[in-house]
Structures are given as C-alpha cells and as structure tokens.
Amino acid sequence: MPTTQSATLESSVCFALYSSLQTTLGLYRELLAPWGLTYQQLLVLAIVWERGEVAPGVLADELCLDPSSVSGLLGRMERAGLVRREHDAADRRAVRVTPTERSLDIRAELGHLERCVTDAMQITRADAETLVASLHSLRTTVRAYDARGATAEALASRPIPSAPDTTED
Fold first, then answer.
1. Other CB atoms closer than 10 Å to residue 168's CB: what's the count?
2. What's the CA gap between 40 and 44, in Å, rounded?
3. Transmembrane ranges (predicted)?
4. Helix or strand or coil: residue 47?
5. Which of 24, 40, 70, 142 could form a disulfide with 60 if both were Cys (CB 3.0 to 4.6 A apart)?
6. What does the alpha-carbon distance between residue 28 and residue 128 come to, in Å, rounded to a whole number?
7. Count of CB atoms within 10 A of residue 110's CB?
C-alpha cells in the first residue's frame, strides 16, 4: 500500500509533468541515439529546418532557454556538422544559424520519429491537440505568476523564531 507521501506525490500535477517529461526524454534518447542527437538538438534543428535561418536569441526565446545555454548548444552542434553560425552581411554583430547538408540528410531519415512517439504515447491526434493546448495554457499561466511576491509574502507571514537561550544554568 502506498505511503501518504507517495500517494501525494503521485497525485501532484508537477510530479506528473516531471515524470512524464523524464520518460518521454528517455524515449527520445533511445530513438535519436543512432544519429547522435539529443532532444534539445532536435528542437533546435526543427526550428532551423522550418525557417532556413534563425538568430540564436530567437532560438533561446522559443525553446525557453537561457541565451548562454543556446550558445553552448550551437557550438556543439556546429562542431558536429549540424548547423552553421554565420555573421549577417548587413550587421556583422548579428549571427544567423542555418542548417547543414548533414542535418538536412538527418531530417529525411527521422521521418519515423513522430509515429514512434505517437505509438509509444498511445494518443490520438485529437487528444494530442487538447493536451498541447492545455500545456501551452499552463505555461502561460505559470509564467504570469508572481513567484517572488508569493515567496516574500510567505516569508513575511512566518513566525519569527526566538533566539536560542545562551545563558548558562
């Protein structure tokens, strides 16, 4: 019989999201291993393939990543021959990320990926669309939440611990 703590954990929205994400990332790890890709790299490639070229800042925004994380990710991808980073001819400070022939070849080989993930999740297109819409709504709502204010309020309302008695008997 589950303990109260594990029952609470199993009914937690955050744990359900976390454990589902970890399980899904594990599936992607297995599916992408033959190409030496990570899920984050796949996300970058999906955007680059769709647009042809994209600025690193746009990648950071769309993938909800810190710009320095994107820079490191792009460096590894460039060394692996998956993308090119080129300075914009009109503005040498601006960088554009473009796909390489190798990444375009990989794209053609990954046609099975969506079917495999859908099969593993055993989810219909309609259910997937509903889930995605719910998750986007959740993300928007959580982003708008004032966590600092809530934490400050919680800290302000907690009892102030009394100082330990340092007098000797």
1. 4
2. 6
3. none
4. helix
5. 70
6. 17
7. 19
What is the predicted pLDDT for the residue at 1? 46
Contacts of 111 (CB under 8 A, 6+ apart): none
Task: Give dist(CA 17, CA 14) in Å, integer.
Answer: 5
Q: Around Cβ 121, how many Cβ atoms within 10 Å? A: 15
For residue 54, which phi and psi values (nearest 5 degrees)? -155, 150
Element (H, E) at 137: helix 125-144
Check: CB of residue 59 under 8 Å from CB of residue 27: no
How do strand 95-99 and strand 83-87 relate by DSSP bridges? antiparallel
Domains and their CATH numbers in the chain = 12-140 (1.10.10.10)
Read off the pTM. 0.81
127 CB neighbour count, 10 Å cutoff: 11
How many residues appear in the chain? Answer: 169
pLDDT at 3 over 60: no
Q: Which residues contact 65 (CB under 8 A, 6 or more apart)?
A: 40, 59, 73
In tens, the pLDDT along 145-159 reads: 988 888 888 888 888
